[in-house]
């Protein structure tokens, strides 16, 4: 009976003791507890209570007011959050975190114009704020203002070329920023044993950016096996949301053997949290029969670097043929300026060598290693050069060497 009475006494008295202890704490100590409640224990209600208690002791404590506004934002108490932030604005607060917190609220609740006005006011006072520049890029990108987004992310990467999230976002924005692009590529392929004649492939493409994504028209001319052929392709990258977009492609050629008669492909891409990106899809080639390949890839941005791993799996009657490729890129400036290295095994349907997939020689062993260099001049002139070495088993236990060299130029406008 005594223990039960002691338990009831502790149960009813402990809240008063706790409140009395909190009343003895300073505003800084209460602020620290509020942050711990929010970030460590995810108890936003208690964090709001502690923040209010801290403000009762220090009404002019700007950091606590900004934090309280964030807490209201995170708990969807939007009117309360706006009241807090508007009071801070009337107080002419100049803290970078105030502009970031208030603009984030408006961005998350579909008020891009108000968010941009707040960000621009913050950038007047904090011109080198990487957080404000990143948020401005996101707002413009979400509002389909791709050219403004490209300028802002370029400014951010000039300040900090190793900004991981900015680097990942710049690659996505680059696909939409230029309304038009015309490109020309030339591919020379040298064989020491497998074929008597070297290959020459020329590609001409036109890209148009639409409100839902890019559309690319391409014509390829090839001289292979001392014969000529032409292929026509169309590709599109429709944007589904800020996270997801598609790749859809198709091609046709009347010169079977030099090119597949038909090719199709679909992939779903995802821009994932923490600067990851992923893809799943298929590719299909038709020469005299269908070849179906399934692909998956995962990429990750780390400061100036981009790492990517891709596989193609081709089901057969007796086994599944496999192709693996690892790529590393080091970005020197913007999305079109990088040095890259690749290493892998197997054949890929994306390569100009895809006609080697016909008649099942793709089941033989292939090793490849290569490098690429892309750079831009005045942002609208894009140049590329790459070289890849292949050790190709073209007959069982018989290998040949192959060297691909590709140069390209693209003009955006």
TrEMBL record:
The keyword Repeat does not apply. The keyword Signal applies. Residues 1-20 form the signal peptide. Pfam families: TPR_19, YaiO. Residues 179-351 form the YaiO beta-barrel domain. It comes from the Bacteria. Keywords: Signal. InterPro entries: Beta-barrel_YaiO, TPR-like_helical_dom_sf. This is YaiO family outer membrane beta-barrel protein. It comes from Sphingobacterium suaedae.
